Amino acid sequence: MNRTITVVVQDLAGLCPMRSRLSTLLVAHGVDGDVGADVQVATTELVTNGLTHANAPAVAVRATIDADRVRLHVHHAARPGRRRTTVAPGRTSVTTALDGGGRGLGIVDRISDDVQVDRARGHRTTALTFERRRPRADGAQSPLVQAIAGS
Question: Is 144's pLDDT higher than 70?
């Protein structure tokens, strides 16, 4: 099973319709509970960051559901003239890449099974890939639920 949707969000008002389409896809393919909530949080954070911090004119989201995981690919090209968070060379985690600002990327890093940032040196284009495994038969909890329980 491999299901994919692509949504382009041009402003913050587009977040609600994006979440609705994503929710429909997730529910239709049995992704709910902790995993569904984590995917929704990550998508909202990544798109909001692209629109507000990078001043991107639009953010494209591709969500793919496979038998064992949900993968988000979020891509935008920043407009010049706005401060952007940069990933320092040699950093391996989105959390360690934060250079001030909000907590959104740290949250995304914490609730994911894998996050990768691809930013071409000298370019204002950023692609982030978020991956979350679907529940296992042993009933393991999501990273977000584990993080909250450990607080």
Answer: no
